[in-house]
Amino acid sequence: xxxxxxxxxxxxxxxxxxxxxxVASGSTAGINRVGWYHQxxxxxxxxxxxxxxxxxxxxxxxxxxxxxxxxxNAKSTVYLQMNSLKPEDTAVYFCNAGWFANDYWxxxxxxxxxx
Length: 115
Fold this sequence. Notes:
Blueprint: E1 2-7, E2 10-13, E3 18-26, E4 33-39, E5 46-52, E6 57-59, E7 67-72, E8 77-82, E9 91-99, E10 102-105, E11 109-114
Parallel strand pairs: 2-11
Antiparallel strand pairs: 1-3, 3-8, 4-5, 4-9, 5-6, 7-8, 9-10, 9-11
């Protein structure tokens, strides 16, 4: 089993920044992919950033150039640096990690961007 705990959400004005953290614990040795997702009220959950064990990263078009995903293997932590935040970034942000068919989710952290 893998446990994921997100933190770093909050209320920020448009144009501001936040850094989200996702700390993994438990049987983490097999993890080869981590993604950040967001879900706004009434909308489907969608992936905004992804990083794999080789360091390859991908971003949703809506956040490209503003968000950066990174990892610190020694701390079993993946970060999402969010800059130039917009009101439409308001959502609950979830961390997802796994390997093959093993898939784990955190509880989410709320990000609210005021205009």
